[in-house]
Amino acid sequence: MKPPTLRALIFDVDGTLADTESVHRAAFNAAFVEARLDWHWDEELYTRLLEVSGGKERITHYWQRLRPDGPAPPPGVLADTVQRLHDLKTAVYSRLVAEGALQLRPGVRQLIESAPAEGLRLAIATTTSPANIEALLQGALGADWRARFDVVEDASTAPRKKPHPQVYLQALQRLELEACACLALEDSANGLQAATRALIPVIVTPNPFTAHQDFTAALRVLPSLEGTTVADLRAWHAATPDSCHP
Ligand code: XBP
Ligand code: MG
Q: What is the per-residue pLDDT across 12-32, written as a single tens digit (0 to 9) for each?
């Protein structure tokens, strides 16, 4: 059976479009200082905490499971406090990105800019907050960055975080495409699992926070997208088992 034609690339954001997690970590720690909490997430701890997708979920997990100040407060108080901490963190992250803390990973800009002329649609499927996407892509691609993506699914539209497939299932639904006609670009095991559960083939470009994770299910693992062309992606995609017509 003829393999399905590749029709769309679905990009993860953090760790894939840019190495954002070191800036996220700095923003979390700055928020803890601003809130007068003597919490500090070093790289080793943050690498472990990144196994929990979503900043609010990560703070809650840390507070409930690692109990830095003894038992976490009751659920209502906890949720309000976590929200306030996360709002502080998001404001710091946006400021750091606006000050030029980040740039796109190698090869990302070239793929985003060449895809439409080569017949590929673009989408985003991320667990990060909308403000973070805006800060990163407004700076990297300009004020009209949103026009390049047919679909953006994020923490505000898909509250069930990776490895749950919700963000990818909603992206497919809005693209009106079958999973086998798409490729997901990810950096983490959680992201790989989420896309795989949505039956989307995945290319992984790990980063220092995720390089140790298991990417067995990936179609391909690359050090980065540097030098990767749409033709490469089409060839690798054509070699996938045809999940549209099993
Ligand atoms: C990675 C995440 C996010 C970021 C922090 O998202 O899990 O939680 O670490 O951003 P992606 P927030 O799916 O793009 O890899 O604090 O806004 O969650
Ligand atoms: Mg990611």
A: 999 999 999 999 999 999 999
